[in-house]
Amino acid sequence: MLVALRSFHIYSRRGGMFINSCFAHCQSESQDTWFARDSPQIYSKTIAEAVGDWYFSRNTSKLIDCAYPCDTSCHNIAA
């Protein structure tokens, strides 16, 4: 997937992405998760902050997490 997004990541000036290494794939559909105190993060930025930066053109917000299963901010981590 990251190979497929490489040119977008490098060349897109308007697009954004928040690709974390969480096991649960349904976290982005719920605003409860976005705004929760323990929301998943990449480089200390929550989903809500990254999407807000992209949507309001504050930043391109192209955040890519470390390889699975390194992210300790994930919900429902499978061990």
UniProtKB/TrEMBL annotation:
Taxonomic superkingdom: Eukaryota
Molecular-function annotations in GO: hydrolase activity
Localization, UniProt: Secreted, Cell wall
Alphabetical list of Pfam families matching this protein: PAE
Keyword annotations from UniProtKB, A to Z: Cell wall, Cell wall biogenesis/degradation, Hydrolase, Secreted
EC class of the enzyme, as a word: hydrolase
GO biological process terms on file: cell wall organization
UniProt-listed Enzyme Commission number(s): 3.1.1.-
Keyword Transport: no
Chief location category: secreted
Family: Belongs to the pectinacetylesterase family.
Record's function text: Hydrolyzes acetyl esters in homogalacturonan regions of pectin. In type I primary cell wall, galacturonic acid residues of pectin can be acetylated at the O-2 and O-3 positions. Decreasing the degree of acetylation of pectin gels in vitro alters their physical properties.
Name of protein: Pectin acetylesterase
Organism: Salix purpurea
